[in-house]
Design brief:
The complex is a heterotrimer of chains A (531), B (130) and C (496). By secondary structure, chain A is mainly α. Chain A has a two-stranded antiparallel ribbon with strand order 1-2. Chain A has a domain at 272-513. Chain A has 20 helices and two strands. Chain B has a domain at 29-56 and 84-123: Helix Hairpins, CATH 1.10.287. Chain C is an all-alpha fold and 496 residues long. Chain C has one domain (9-495). Chain C has helices at residues 7-39, 47-74, 87-110, 120-137, 141-159, 166-197, 202-211, 216-233, 240-248, 251-273, 282-304, 309-329, 336-364, 374-377, 380-383, 385-399, 405-419, 423-446, 463-481, 484-493, and strands at 77-79, 83-85. The chains are: A mainly alpha (531), B mainly alpha (130), C mainly alpha (496). At the A-C interface, helix 5, helix 6 and helix 7 of A face helix 17, helix 18 and helix 20 of C.
């Protein structure tokens, strides 16, 4: 029952905020802030109350079922496991940030803005919780509409173009996935004597001919690759990011892109294990291509938000690589990248929003020397730039390192190339800070430094990124049972795919040897010598 | 009567229909267009008469075979029969009636066109584009 | 040949008889009222007459709607060899009657200040409704043709209803010329088919088509019939009239043409083609597939650059009918039930959204001035926030976005297509949904952008029209979120 509140609270707050916002914008802001804090707190409570993960009771932590459309075999089926929980927490955190960072940016139709923002967050919560494929698709599409309006109404100069491009890319790819879902639905129904259902758990293990599996998986991959985004279907992202209002960018980069990653982990690999396995090398190459392409394109940008957007493509390449490297190490790494990138990129977009709000420009050629008047802002920027480039101790490092370590078992060559992307990210991240905050102050900017609200936001984000960086075990423990289950579903067991012994994440990170496998922890660096 | 085959009758009606169609496409005066439409409708009517005469005094073979393969449908007290039918001729009367209705509405519009557009040229009514 | 009229027949035909009788009654009442107005018994002017006409029309249509279950008690029943009353027909009749009520109320709002409008609008509307219902119930060439023509002839007059408007006249004349020509194609086709097969019974014909490939004359005849049908459905390549007629006709009439006239024709087409084994009738299959794909692409591409809202909706309706044709092609041996229900669901969704969209256009228009250019809609969110919200919702529904009934409809059609393995058609539909999104969103976002030009005068919203829109919006969202009642109705009623 608790799960439905994750969706209802933001949705209700959004509906209330609309009329309230016409009377008093401030009341609407507080209302939405309270709702998001409550949602986050709910998630936190659930996290804290999580039972021992190694218990044999299964990895589902909570569920909610209600009949919806029995005729089609669709029901309201919400389930939460470690994977969903972490993403729900991320959504909650960035939801709070999105409300806070719009505080002084949005003055126009505040109520309607918050309606859209809250409904987008509700839709995202739904995506992460729904385990009925029809319901999942329902939310998957639903969250796009508010984001479309956020960009198209409150966005910057070329908002109309960016919004339409974003919407058409995601909608068309989503519809292909819907066709795929339906094909799966009919195949399953015919196999099981008319048991037509969209229930994810029942659809697992549907056997189908390799050709249909490939085709259906292709539609899923297309939808998730567009969301992720993977090269070459990424072109909507820089436009959408650049034109969106700050809150839109934060949610877009921080959470919405993760829907693609979530979809790959949750649906694509377990539903079509064999086809996904065959497809893995191609997906890895796409991932590495994304890493390099994003990093190289980031160099060439003059627009602050565009630069961060391209860096997102680069980071999400690691996720794609991690998911398709087919071992638990890389998968755990992908999970950490998802969280860390959400926090760090969210912070960078908030920063970009504040710079734009204060200077009126995002043009890197015009900015410079902001450190003189806004040292605190500069410090925060430096920290998140360092996080982004993968400084040990901050979250991104753990994730990207785990992904690379896992990938090394699958393909040393790709690992080396992908590591090159990390080097490139160091360059553009530092260059970003240097150009904005150091260097000559050509246009004599005098900025107000962070105020209390902004300071508070960054404090929370910094805490999160440091937490992920220094104590990832908290998150990995939550994820592990879910990850294991997903890998069992994909028919490979733990670490079985490349024929190498499983690598135990916890032992690698120096925590106590784990209970469940009992196999020798092996550092990925040693894996070459294995048979 | 028997010397005219069904095929020739249908060909005649098709030719008439074609003439009417050419008239609709080529004429610009709205009255002539209506006239041509009448020709098309009546060509179709002729085709019905021809088809009706083909079936008037023999039970339709196809229908009979279909009826033989399954029990005669008897819904609502009506028994379908395969006895000589006058359906084609009846349809012709429908066609005549409807053609009259079409033309009466058409002529009303022509009158309005004359008073409003001041012309009976169909090109006078082509202001909407896009 | 024996024919005994029974009470059950009367019961089955009751809704149709009510609508037909109402047309006559309203005509007489209007004549009497006008007389009474002249004689000084009623207040002078025509306003009372139109109001009485409107009230009577709505009552008659609502009564017919309420009588559908009564007729359903006698269904399925063939009344003579012309008409069959069954669940399938009754479902679509209910859809058509509901749409007619909405159009009557919208028309009443539209003509509010027009003193010369008279009440003939309602007579014509009732006649057209009777024609549409005849189509839905028809099982014979004769009733098919009669229903079609009653519908069409009423529509010529309705399209040109604005006496002062030259655009209305153009719409009426164009519709007349093209509809009459297409009707003659239809007739010629019927004659050809009859000449070869000796039957005018549609059900028998469908059986014959199912049994064996047919000689060329029958195929030619069927294709000629498809010309007439395609014209009525505004399918490519018979779509050329659509935009002009939609633009020129009064908005309420446009709503009627877009929904009732198309829905009735499609119901008939579906009823008899759904059983046809297309593998035996290859030319028909090829033509239908080409028409479906062509309608999607042409409709959507023509809508892309439209600056006129009525034309945009006209082109969008061409594309929507293209989607609908997918259900027809998906009705293979295994997918028959699903395809019929999908068609019913999609049409219901299409009716709601199209009536809603044209309803907003109609409420903003008056006989003097049609609100049709994009400039009339820019910044509508400030002038009429609720109307803007309703129109945006309707557009999102046409685009098939979740939470609206349009999603349910599109999902149903996709399901039917996937079930029948129509991969190419499904792909075409998905791509076209993307193209369609572009212009639906373009209009939706225009509602929220400040207008560049002088904003049009704020119009007063008539309560009758507002009520229609309120009901449609509630339905749009309610069915979109919880489609179960609609699905249950479709499952219970729509079977062939």
């Amino acid at each position: 029952m608790i799960l439905i509140w994750f969706i209802l609270i933001p949705a209700a707050a959004g509906l209330l905020a609309w009329p309230v916002g016409r009377k008093s914008p401030l009341a609407a802001r507080w209302l939405c802030l309270a709702a998001m804090v409550a949602t986050l707190a709910l998630g936190g409570w659930l996290w804290a109350a999580t039972p021992d993960h190694d218990a044999a009771q299964g990895h589902w932590l909570a569920q909610f079922r209600a009949p919806w459309i029995p005729q089609w075999g669709a029901q309201i089926n919400l389930r939460l496991d470690g994977l969903s929980l972490l993403l729900v927490l991320l959504t909650g955190l960035l939801g709070v940030m999105a409300v806070l960072c719009s505080w002084s940016e949005i003055h126009d139709r505040v109520g309607l803005f918050h309606l859209n923002l809250m409904w987008m967050l509700a839709g995202l919560m739904g995506v992460f919780l729904a385990l009925d494929l029809f319901l999942f698709y329902f939310f998957f599409e639903l969250m796009l509409v508010p984001l479309y309006f956020l960009i198209a109404i409150w966005g910057h100069e070329h908002r109309r173009y960016a919004a339409v491009k974003f919407f058409i890319f995601t909608q068309v790819s989503g519809l292909f996935m819907l066709a795929g879902i339906l094909a799966l639905y009919f195949i399953h129904g015919r196999q099981h004597g008319g048991d037509y259902t969209f229930d994810y758990v029942r659809l697992l293990g549907t056997s189908m001919s390799p050709t249909s599996a490939w085709l259906i998986m292709g539609t899923f991959f297309l939808a998730f690759a567009v969301k992720l985004p993977a090269v070459p279907v990424h072109t909507w992202l820089p436009d959408a990011h650049t034109e969106a209002p700050t809150a839109g960018s934060v949610i877009l980069a921080g959470v919405l892109l993760k829907v693609g990653a979530y979809g790959l982990l949750r649906f694509l690999v377990p539903l079509f294990p064999a086809a996904a396995r065959d497809f893995a090398p191609a997906a890895q190459v796409l991932g590495v291509a994304g890493i390099l392409y994003g990093a190289i394109m980031a160099f060439a940008q003059r627009d602050l938000k565009r630069l961060v957007a391209y860096s997102s493509i680069s980071h999400m390449g690691f996720v794609l690589l991690g998911v398709f490297s087919w071992n638990s190490l890389a998968m755990a790494g992908a999970m950490v990248v998802i969280l860390a990138h959400g926090v760090s990129t969210g912070a960078l977009f908030i920063l970009a929003g504040q710079v734009q709000e204060r200077t009126g420009t995002r043009d890197l050629d015009r900015l410079g020397g902001l450190w003189e008047t806004a040292p605190r802002m500069g410090g925060v920027a430096m920290l998140f730039a360092l996080a982004s480039l993968g400084l040990p101790g901050l979250g991104n490092f753990i994730g990207e390192f785990l992904v690379l370590a896992g990938t090394f078992q699958a393909s040393p060559v790709l690992t080396v190339v992908a590591a090159g992307g990390m080097v490139a990210s160091a360059i553009y991240a530092l260059w970003l800070v240097q150009r904005i905050f150091h260097g000559p102050n050509r246009e004599s900017w005098r900025l107000g430094d962070l105020n209390a609200r902004e300071g508070l936001m960054y404090a929370a984000l910094v805490a999160a990124i440091v937490w992920i960086g220094l104590y990832p075990r908290a998150f990995l423990d939550t994820f592990k049972p879910a990850g294991q289950w997903l890998r069992e579903m994909s028919g490979t067991g733990v670490g079985g795919s490349t024929g190498v012994p499983p690598v135990e994440v916890r032992s690698l990170l120096g925590t106590k040897p784990s209970v469940n496998t009992g196999e020798t922890p092996v550092l990925p660096g040693n894996s070459e010598g294995r048979p | 009567m028997a010397s005219i085959s069904v095929e020739s009758g249908l060909i005649l009606s098709a030719v008439l229909f074609g003439l009417g169609l050419i008239g609709v496409l080529a004429r610009r005066n709205i009255l002539f267009i209506l006239l041509s439409i009448e020709i098309m409708l009546n060509a179709a009517g002729l085709a019905f008469v021809v088809a009706g005469s083909a079936w008037q005094d023999e039970s339709p073979t196809v229908a009979a075979s279909a009826a033989a393969t399954e029990p005669t449908t008897s819904v609502g007290g009506y028994k379908e029969s395969t006895v000589p039918q006058a359906d084609g001729q009846v349809m012709f009367f429908f066609v005549l009636t409807m053609a009259a209705a079409e033309v009466s509405v058409g002529l009303a519009l022509v009158l309005r066109m004359h008073s409003q557009a001041g012309s009976l040229d169909a090109d006078a009514l082509s202001r909407m584009r896009g | 040949m024996s024919w005994n009229w029974t009470m059950a027949d009367a019961q089955a035909l009751l809704p149709l008889m009510v609508v037909s009788a109402a047309a006559v009654v309203v005509l007489l009442v209007l004549a009497c009222c006008r007389r009474a107005g002249v004689a000084g018994i009623l207040p002078a002017g025509e306003t009372p007459a139109t109001r009485i006409g409107a009230v009577l029309t709505v009552i008659a249509l609502a009564a017919a709607l309420a009588l559908l279950p009564v007729a359903g008690a006698a269904a399925p029943r063939s009344v003579t060899f012309l008409v069959i009353v069954d669940g399938y027909g009754l479902f679509f009749a209910g859809l058509l009657l509901s749409a007619c009520i909405a159009v009557a109320l919208l028309g009443h709002s539209y003509f509010r200040q027009e003193t010369s409008a008279g009440g003939e609008f309602y007579v014509l509307l009732l006649l057209a409704a009777a024609g549409a219902m005849t189509l839905v119930f028809s099982r014979h060439f004769a009733s098919f043709f009669l229903g079609l023509e009653i519908l069409s002839v009423s529509l010529y007059a309705l399209a040109a209803y604005n006496r002062a408007s030259l655009a209305g006249l153009e719409a009426g004349v164009k519709y007349l010329v093209l509809a009459a020509s297409s009707a003659s194609f239809l007739l010629l086709g019927m004659a050809f088919v009859y000449a070869k097969t000796g039957t005018m019974d549609l059900g028998r014909l469908a059986q014959l088509l199912n049994a064996a490939p047919q000689p060329a004359l029958v195929t030619v005849g069927l294709l000629l019939i498809m010309v007439g049908v395609g014209f009525k459905l505004a399918l490519v390549p018979f779509h050329l009239w659509t935009a002009d007629v939609y633009q020129g006709a009064p908005a309420a009439v446009t709503a009627f043409i877009a929904t009732v006239s198309k829905g009735a024709m499609f119901a008939l087409l579906m009823r008899y083609l759904v059983g046809v084994n297309f593998t035996l009738q290859y030319p028909l299959l090829a033509v239908l597939t080409a028409v479906a794909v062509g309608s999607m692409f042409v409709g959507n591409l023509l809508a892309l650059r439209q600056e006129n809202v009525k034309r945009l909706l006209a082109y969008s309706s061409i594309a929507q009918l293209g989607y609908l044709l997918v259900t027809l092609l998906a009705a293979g041996p295994g997918g028959r039930e699903l395809a019929i229900r999908a068609a019913g669901g999609f049409l219901a969704a299409y009716f709601i959204a199209t009536l809603g969209a044209f309803g907003v256009v109609s409420l903003l228009s008056s006989p003097q001035r049609e609100a049709e250019s994009f400039d009339d809609y820019r910044g509508l969110a400030w002038r009429h926030p609720v109307l803007a919200g309703v129109l945006a919702a309707m557009l999102l529904s046409l685009a098939g976005i979740p939470l609206t009934v349009g999603f349910i409809g599109k999902f149903y059609v996709l399901a039917a297509g996937v079930n029948a393995n129509l991969a190419a058609l499904v792909a075409a539909m998905v791509i076209n949904s993307g193209i369609g999104l572009y212009y639906y969103l373009r209009l939706a976002i225009a509602l929220f952008t400040p207008s560049r030009a002088e904003p049009p005068p704020r119009v007063a919203i008539h309560p009758a029209g507002a009520a229609v829109l309120a009901v449609l919006t509630v339905l749009l969202v309610a069915v979109g979120v919880y489609p179960q009642p609609l699905l249950r109705l479709l499952a219970a009623v729509v079977a062939l």
